[in-house]
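Dear colleague,

Following up on yesterday's call, I've attached the two folding results inline so they're easy to grep. Please treat them as preliminary; we haven't cross-checked anything against experimental data yet. The first protein's sequence and structure tokens come first.
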Amino acid sequence: MGSIGQKINPDKMQRAKELRRQMTPAEKILWQQLRGNRLNGLHFRRQQIIDGFIADFYGHAAKLVREVDGKIHEQQAQYDAERDKVLLARELRLLRIKNEEVKQELDRVLMLICQACFEEA
């Protein structure tokens, strides 16, 4: 897994691999649309390690981190806030989408991702 100019902790690398194997149903649905540059030629990586945090999906060219949030995020608000602060300090943009949105409104979600990628940073 390529990193963005950073030294990667081997434990984090292993955890990212596990997360790729154990994607949630919503993450799998979205990955099918994003993989292989399928969404308007945009390149995304899944489970990208950025400054010790693991982002669900990362589009390097657009500097966009995409998170699919499920119930777990209600219990880890402090962790998410810390991660968001670190990512924003890197001048990355965040797009949070709920599991239900991916499952029920996939076309709208894909449109939001496209818009976020093509708008000026």
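Below is the second protein, in the same order (sequence, then structure):
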Amino acid sequence: MKGPEGTTVKCWRCAVRHGPMLRRSILAAVVVGTIVTAINQGDTLVSGSRPSTLAWKIPLSYVVPFFVAAWGALMNARR
């Protein structure tokens, strides 16, 4: 769809299904999420204890970088 001044405008639903953007966001989430998990939960994981709070803390360590990377890509594409 053409927007003002001849720029291409994509709907956000199309953008979030864009394969290259998803791959980059997933890669960023894996790398950053692993580092954040190691920093924040490493001592707990190494000690062998598994408190129930890890059930939401570890996934959140991966979800947040994914959304940050995807949001950054979407905002950059809007320029």
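For the second protein, one point worth flagging: The mean pLDDT is 85.

Best wishes,
A.L.
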